Amino acid sequence: MYEFLFEAVGGDVNAVRAVLSTFFESSRKQLEEMRSALTTGDAQRLNYAAHQLAGGLVTCGMSDLSQQARNLEQRALHEPVADLAGEVEHIATTLQQAEMNCDADLSRVDKNRKS
Amino acid sequence: MNSKTKPLHVLMADDDPFITSLYRDILIRSDVRVDTVQNGEEALKFLQSTVPDLLVLDINMPRIDGSAVLRYIREQSSCPDLPVIVLSNVCSEEFVERINRLRPSRFLIKYDYPPNRVVQTIMEVLDTLRKGETVPATQPTISPAPQPAAPGSMPDLLQHLEQTSSIEEQRSILLEIYRIIQPALRTLGGANPLSMAFQFGCSAEQCFEQWYARESLLSPWARRLLCTVETSAEYWNQRINEGAAMSALLLISNEEDEQRRLQRGMLERPGWTPLVVAREDSALDIIEGNSISLIVWRAKRFGAARKILKRIRELERVSQMKVLFLLPEQDADQWLEEIYDTKAFALPHEVSAPELLAAVYGEWRLMPTHPV
User: Which residues of B fall within a CB distance of 8 Å from A51?
Assistant: First the structure.
């Protein structure tokens, strides 16, 4: 999942770790923004936060989750915002899992690269 | 790099601090000076005082978006030839065309360009600049439209549609198919049987045959799609047979013949109470004061109906109420957008009173867009 990031930062696992730390922090804010948009029924705000998150996710190599955020971005403009709470929470949970597994995933990718 | 050479200067404009910090850290390690801004307004202010060697520009940013920044650079600034790499995750054809007219040096779409390729492209441009050469513009790569359910081409989507038994997944695939075919549908002229059939799951073949006789306009896969969305009457019949739950029907229509025939038809059906109003603004009181199970709404002008529509949508979420729209071709796009993905059904405006009764009785095989 993080191979491209490794390549981008020159193969330094600590640099990738720092990048991902920034990403997870940034994504938490975007998810908070989405939850807030759900509460206020603000479709544009939800669309924008999902758009931002999708860009970060794909940059980190989380393509499937990025696709879900991208889908949410589109749906926010066409569907009642309140109906999308499940999707937001699904993305949040998946991201939380990715963050929990991050160290293990990084070690695995690093090991594969070196072998 | 030669220590005597002045480092090249890159300005990164992106509203996501993660993106700017990622590329800034990478570029700084390559002895590139990097400044970052988080919106178009800051980018313009920056450019008024300093002209970097390269601008890496996001498009979808608050305040002033990237396309306005790029337009300003090309048309009004003191640096119209500034090399600009657009890095965006918007990728519709219309968007790409619009940005292309503003002559970006490179156009990178995040879904196609992982960070290592973005870095590589930035480095290539910087190398060109170091040699004192100009950076030619290149054609963008256009990503496919979002693929929420089943990535792939139309045949893949249709195949997936046939294979899956999950209603939610079918709906998601149909949404995707609709997004792909929407431009073509619009060229056929507003709301048409295919879009109706797709969006509301109403009896596609009948809708198609009765409303549009021009079958040749549809390709084989579109015909196949019509067959695929044809669904059973089970849901609708079940709702009708619940009796008490389906006790009141409200017709919003000013067509007397329709009012008379629908009332008579519904009264022949035990357990139903037909209510009729001619004007949309009168309907709201009835909706609030009665437990309406089904609204049949012969929709007229879109603008006048927004208020009642909003209330109906609210009620729809908390009750079992269903709405059957009879949509006019005029304003149909607006209607479709507004009631897109509600629990509503829709039939073309031209449906006759007997046909409407048949629809309500389930002979037209209506089904909801959402499973209940």
Answer: 60, 89-90
